[in-house]
Known about the structure:
The two termini are 27 Å apart. The protein contains two helices and six strands, in the order E-E-E-H-E-E-E-H. Helices cover 18% and strands 29% of the residues. The strands form two sheets. A four-stranded antiparallel beta sheet has the order 3-4-5-6, covered by helices on one side. The longest helix has 10 residues, at 90-99. The chain has a domain at 61-100. A hairpin with a 6-residue loop joins strand 1 and strand 2 (12-14). It is of the alpha+beta class and 107 residues long.
Amino acid sequence: MLKLTCPYCGVTGEETEFHAGGEAHLKRFGPGSGDEDFTNYLFSRKNPRGVHFERWRHQYGCGKWFHAARDTGTLEVFGTYTAQTGEPPADIVAKIKAKRPEWEGFA
């Protein structure tokens, strides 16, 4: 079972208190973008084995969306951070690199 901590209200709970929202840090293309860009935005998602950045919502708490970095193989959560953050914070990246030296970094 995953244990997540909401970065907004500070509550730590099991994954059943939260709602998964898919891949984090997706780039949305604006007006003038092609059909292929829009199709990829809607339907193409990474599903790696290893470190993955995801969106979560504190469903039974404050109701806010946030991001989590976790390992999909071990279910280890490296940390959570606010949804307005454009890239994973340095402390979370350092935790990932300490445990997974082969990790190539945030793309």
